[in-house]
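Tokens in:
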């Protein structure tokens, strides 16, 4: 196999046979131009994570210094510039990894989220012209509904229905920290009204916020306690793994 970019890519992705990898390592120890080629390929690759990139680049630096007799240079390229470039590339790799994780979480949120229906006070035709909180909610005026649910909680902090729907409104408004606070409070009232629903929407809010580990724990709780959303939780967990 020749020293092509495919050869280097296979090395970086651990696809070489034992014999091929040994041959590759021997070439690294004897050919400084090849070391530079592999290093540059590693810098441009996004097929591995930041920690792997750092380990590879440190290894290449050690090999280079050995080949140069301990001098901190490679092919006349100042080492401080090389590491400045390394830091910049690793920052890009980290951003790509973060965005990929965040996007996949949000995609799962969008796939499974629908606002919880109004089951508290179905709106009648006679209320069509009124500004009742439930009409606002059903019409998707979540900002106005949020404000009214908030007022209801000032009057009665134990109004878990208002707190739950306030959490849904906050989700719709992308006020995620407020959504999580409201839903955690409702979910913590075990066996109380909307506790199961709050746990499910809490898991979804974590997904929307990119908090995968918190979402995972919440989904695992839903499954372990056999809540009504357990089957959906299993499917999402499978997507997170």
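Residues out:
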């Amino acid at each position: 196999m020749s020293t092509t970019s495919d050869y280097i890519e296979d090395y970086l992705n651990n696809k070489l046979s034992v014999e091929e990898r040994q041959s590759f390592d021997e070439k690294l120890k004897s050919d400084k131009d090849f070391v530079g080629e592999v290093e540059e390929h590693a810098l441009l690759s996004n097929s591995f994570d930041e920690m792997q990139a750092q380990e590879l680049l440190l290894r290449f630096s050690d090999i280079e210094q050995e080949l140069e007799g301990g001098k901190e240079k490679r092919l006349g390229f100042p080492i401080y510039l090389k590491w400045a470039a390394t830091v910049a590339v690793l920052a890009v790799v980290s951003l790509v990894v973060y965005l990929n994780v965040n996007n996949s979480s949000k995609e799962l949120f969008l796939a499974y989220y629908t606002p919880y229906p109004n089951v508290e006070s179905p709106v009648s035709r006679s209320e069509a012209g009124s500004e009742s909180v439930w009409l606002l909610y059903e019409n998707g005026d979540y900002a106005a509904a949020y404000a009214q649910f908030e007022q209801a909680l000032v009057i009665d902090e134990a109004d878990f229905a208002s707190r739950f729907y306030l959490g849904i409104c906050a989700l719709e408004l992308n006020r995620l920290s407020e959504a999580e606070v409201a839903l955690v409070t409702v979910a913590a009232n075990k066996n109380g009204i909307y506790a199961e629903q709050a746990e499910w929407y809490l898991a979804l809010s974590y997904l929307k916020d990119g908090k995968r580990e918190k979402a995972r724990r919440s989904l695992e709780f839903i499954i372990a306690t056999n809540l009504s959303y357990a089957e959906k939780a299993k499917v999402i967990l499978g997507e997170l793994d």
